[in-house]
Structures are given as structure tokens and as C-alpha cells.
Amino acid sequence: MPLPRPEVLYSEEQIRRRIAEIAGEVTQQFQGQDLCVVALMKSCMVFMADLIRAVPLDATCHFLRVTSLRDEGAVRTDIVYSTEIPYEGRNILLLDDIVDTGITLSFLADHIRERKPRSLKVAVLIDKPGERKIDVHPDWAAFTATGPNERFIVGYGLDHAEGYRGLPYLGTIPRPTPADEGAAHRTSPGSE
Q1: What pLDDT, on the 0 to 100 scale, is given for residue 37?
Q2: What DSSP state is assigned to residue 85?
Q3: Quick check: 94 and 123 in contact, CB under 8 A?
Q4: pLDDT tens-digit series, residues 64-86
Q5: What is the gyration radius of the CA atoms in the chain, in angstroms?
Q6: Rounded to the nearest 5°, which phi and psi values hold at 152?
Q7: Catalytic sites, residue numbers
Q8: CA atoms within 13 A on the CB side of 37
Q9: Cα-Cα-Cα-Cα dihedral of 19, 140, 119, 86, to 10°?
Q10: Cβ contacts of 137 within 8 Å, gap of 6 or more
Q11: Global pTM?
């Protein structure tokens, strides 16, 4: 069955402009220092590639993969894959795709802080503060989504059933069937 055509949420140009703005702020924040960029697999591949090319600093790149299991109302988050990441004494820039409940971001930030980095900053592609269950705040967000979660965000590295990752824009598709919901991210069109 063909995948539904996404409605554009943020255009390629809007994304390019926001990445350049964030890159400028990251460059200013870490001027003259090295940077260790840690991104979530697979959804942050494109975000990471574009951001590090726009930041003229020495940077190492690493990946993490996490899972979140919900069981009887409790959420268990685990790191299931990680490259060897030298956190101690380093400036860490953590990249996340979508921050909604804050559970995964809080878990990762605690995990990194336990390893005594010099600093930890967080940049996200999409922030959904209206859905927070844990009080976390990214340092940079390319976009902020508001409103009810009636549609899923795809493109620019984000997928549904491994499709759509290669789209140069962020778009939305109708809510998939409940069996497929874990493969995509829900939102409604938001504002920058």
C-alpha cells in the first residue's frame, strides 16, 4: 500500500533558516572549544548532519539509541545502542528529534550528567511543551508544536514505518492505525 502524501508543516527553507540560527548560537556558546555532539538514532541523522556542517568548531559525533517501554502506567527507558562516548570533561551537545513528555530527554540528560561532562546543552528539532510529564527544557528548538496531537510528523529524518526519512521538509500524515503508532510522532501544525 502506498504511503500517504504528507502535508508540509515546515518547508525545506524554514528548516534551513532555523538550523543556521541554531548553529550560530551553538558556535557563539562554544567559541574556541571542542564539542561532542550526541544524536539519537535514526531520527536525528539529518538534523545532526546539517547542524554540524553549519557549526565551524571541532566536533566529534556519536549516536545513541533508546527504547521506552510502557508497562502498567510506568515507563522504562533504556539505552540499547551507543557508540563509545567520552563524556567526562567534554562539552556535550545532545540532539533529540521531538521532545514531548520529556521522559526520554530527562533520562538521557541524567545519564550524561552522571559521567561528569564540562557542560551539557540540548538542541531539538521539535519541542512540544504542552505534553510534558517531566519538567525539561531544551536549550534550542528548531520549532515548537502546539495544539492537539491529531497528526504524525514525518520527514527530515523522522519516519513512519521507516518511510519518509528522506523528505527535505517536515510534514504531517493522518494518524496511523494503533498498531503502527510507535513508528511515528503525533502533532498538529505548530508555529516557529
Answers
A1: 97
A2: -
A3: yes
A4: 988 877 666 666 777 776 778 99
A5: 16
A6: -105, 145
A7: 100
A8: 25
A9: -50
A10: none
A11: 0.86
* Domain spans, the chain: 12-146
Q: Which residue has the higher pLDDT, 177 or 132?
A: 132
Strands (E), 30-138: 35-40, 59-71, 74-82, 91-99, 119-127
In three-state secondary structure terms, 52 is helix
Q: Which three cell numbers stand for residue 139?
A: 536549550
Q: Cα–Cα distance between 155 and 187 in angstroms, integer?
A: 13
Whether the predicted pLDDT of 137 surpasses 80: yes
The DSSP 8-state label assigned to residue 139 in this structure reads: S
From CA 56, how far away is CA 34, in angstroms rounded?
10
Residue 128: all three cell numbers together? 512540544
Q: How many CA atoms lie within 13 A of 105 on its CB side?
A: 28
pLDDT at position 185, please? 44
pLDDT digits (tens, 9 = 90+) for 7-63: 999 999 999 999 999 999 999 999 999 999 999 999 999 999 999 999 999 999 999
CATH number corresponding to 12-146: 3.40.50.2020
